[in-house]
Amino acid sequence: MKKTCLKLLSGMLSMLILLSAILTGCAQSDADDNEDNNDSKGAGESESVTAELSDELPERDFGKEQFVVVTADDSMDFVDIQQGDTGNLIEDTAYSRDRTVEERFNIDIVSNDRGTYEEAFTYVQTQVSAGDSESMDLVMYHVVSAGGLAINDVLLSWSEVPYVDFDKPWWSSCTVEDLTVNGTCYIAIGDYAVSAISRTYCIFFDKDVSVNYTHIGDLYEAVDNKEWTYDYMYSAIAEIYEDKNGNNQKDENDFYGLVLDRKSNINVFLWAFDNPIFRKNSAGELEYTYYANPDKLTDIMDKVIELCNDAEGVLSDIEPGSAITMFSSYNALFATGNINHAISELADYENNYGILPYPLYNSDQEEYYTMVDGNHSAMLVTKLPDEAQLEKIGIITEALCAETHKQFLPQYYDVALKYKYAPSEQDASMIDLIVASRKFDFGYVYDGWKGVSFLTEDIIRDGKGQNILASTYKRRKSAAFGHIDRPRFCRLSRHR
After folding, report:
1. The pTM is what?
2. Within 13 A of 188's CA, how many CA atoms are on the CB side?
């Protein structure tokens, strides 16, 4: 079972460092101004401060027991790096992290790769049904599938796992806040889950080409001044089109103001425009807010339809993943994508490019928001572990997240990512903003693709427009609420 399971390209591994921007809070927080957390530590700050952060874990000797991490190929994460001193600083640091934890606790970290996330889903359920807990200490894979495991009563609440401290800076408080229901949290994100950063949605633009369009203005200034709205973006890109191949047809070989595919990339606008499926109220209870303001929701659909269908300078009827490919081929001024594309697709991009958040709904919206693609990893613990195994799970999981934070952050956050990969300090600041603005919507995670999470893309793809919004929503409402009618979520039903 033991094997090297490197899930990410070496460049992508550096994305782990981005977690420091959000470990103690979300975009709307004031980061508590807690110097002890140092969640936005720069390269010039003292590394000793991070090194001194204590995980406050007891010393244990696990006698070379295995710590088994169930993974899936499409989760884009990694465990159990078995070779160090390779000359690759990122891999060597990951190796050092793992060995630090292994030597400290006399533990053997191994991966149990189950193939696709569907296969992993079946495997986890089967093992729990069979009463086998030894084959999986920690599960790390697709967050929406993770919601399905929670619904099927397969997972243990993290509140039952000893030694895991969500107040520590190596845990994403965004996840805890957004996905905790009635004091129960089945899904968590720690530093060890890199894909929760790499899959965060953003917008790329070509700086070198943008100077040819004086009407666009200073985009960074627009973001900083909260002027980067849908209307601003639309006016910037709507009329930018060039028939590059001269065939009098709009195709992928022409030049556009914006390219985006009609799949997950357009669903992001729902959260970017601050219209989540669920939202916490002042009492800390989840309220169903997707259709709370029908006029706003209809206007959101109108805007997205306008963007995809009416603007000459926009191409959206393309295959998933084609947007960033077209951008990397210099066929677009703007393109939707995720942070990882800066490394996986744009490493050899010869022009200077910039990174922006998705725009605000309008000038009244106070904060930027984005989301993470559903195939990022969740961190899960299944039912069945006895007291001894649960102690091991808590200690080793906490230690892995802590060592990731301490060993990666000081060296790589600013140096490896921001100044090596990000095109400029302004873009590094944009990345911080984007990562801090992530939302982990309870409804997105738990409706299992059958509710309203993907309604935006379905309406656009079908070409019927928002006139079918009400009827489609009515059909899907029951699916959106299917999860909260179960005993563990039933207290939410009154907030419909």
Report:
1. 0.83
2. 33
